[in-house]
Amino acid sequence: MLSRVADNLYWFSRYVRRAENMARLIDVNGQIQLDLPRGAHIAWRPLVNTLGAGAQFERLHGGETPHEADVVRFLLVEPDNPVALRNVVSHARETLRTVRETLPQDCWVAINDLHLYIESNPERAGSRRHRPEFLGRIVDGCMHVSALLTANVSRDTGYQFLRLGTAIEQADMTSRIIDTAAAGLIQARSDDDAEAFQAMQWMGVLRSLAAYQMYRRHLRQKVSVELALEFLLKNREFPRSVLFCLSRIQGILPQMPPRRQVEQVFRGAMGLVFDANPTRLAVVGPGSFVDRLQQELAALHGAVHESYFQA
User: Fold this and answer.
1) According to a count of CB atoms within 10 Å of the terminal CB, is the N or C end of the chain lower?
2) What are the domain boundaries of the chain?
3) pLDDT exceeds cutoff 80 at 38
4) Which PANTHER family match (predicted)?
5) Which residues, at least 6 apart from 24, have a Cβ–Cβ distance to it below 8 Å?
6) What does the alpha-carbon distance between residue 306 and residue 311 come to, in Å, rounded to a whole number?
C-alpha cells in the first residue's frame, strides 16, 4: 500500500471520530446547563483549551470573558478555527476525496451529505433551540460512516490503518474529555453545592462519551470521581475507555508491517495507563496525568507518522 493512501485512511478515521466526540461533548454541556439550578453556571471556556484551540480563541476574542454563544460558534462553525467541527468534517471529506477508490461509495456519499448539512445550517450551531438537533445530526452522520467502515471494508492493510486512526483518536478524545472535568466546568454557588455539582459534572463526562449506561451496568454504583476515572481509563470492555483503545492498538500492530519505534512508544503509553491509580487521581486531580497521557499519545502518533507515512 502506498504511504500516501495509508496516511489518508488513517486521518480520515481520526477526523470522523473527532467530529463525533466534539459534537457529543458540546451537546452534553448544553444539556447540563439546562439542569443547573439558578446561580450555578457552565464555564464554556475550558472546552476551548481542552480541544487545543486556546491561542486561536484569544486571537479572535481577546481576553474578555466569553459568552456561551461565542465559544459554541468558535468550536462548531468558526471558519478561522482550524479545529472547529465544521473544518474537521471538511478535512475528512477532502481526505476521502483523494482515496475514494479504496473505500465503498456509500462512505463518500455519507460524509459528503454530512458536510453539505453543516455548510447549509451553520446558524443552527448558535441557537440553543436548534443546537441539539444540529449536533444530533452530526453524531448520527459520523456513526453512519463508522458503521459503513466496519461492515463494508475488506480486512486488509488499509482497514488496519483505519482502525489504528480510530483507536488513537478515541484514546486522545477520551483523555481530553476527562480533562474538561478536571478544569471545573460547573461553577458552584457555594462550597455546600460542590459535591453535588462534582457528581453532575462527571455524569456529564460519562454521557459525553456515551458511557453512562455502561458505567451503571458495570459498576452499579453512584457516579464518583474515582469510579468514573477507573471506568474511563482502565475498563477493558468499554470501547471508548483508554485501555480498551490501547488494547485494540496492541492487536492491530502485529497485522501491520513491523516497526520497532512504534512498538516502543506504544509500550510507554500502555504502561502509563496500567500504572494509573484512579484513587490517587481523584484526590490530586487528573490534570497532570492527562497531560502526560496526551504527550504519550502524541508521541505514538509521531512514531506512526514517521514509520509508515514518510517512507
Assistant:
1) C
2) 3-309
3) no
4) BLR5612 PROTEIN, SLL1039 PROTEIN
5) 135, 139, 207, 208, 209, 210
6) 8
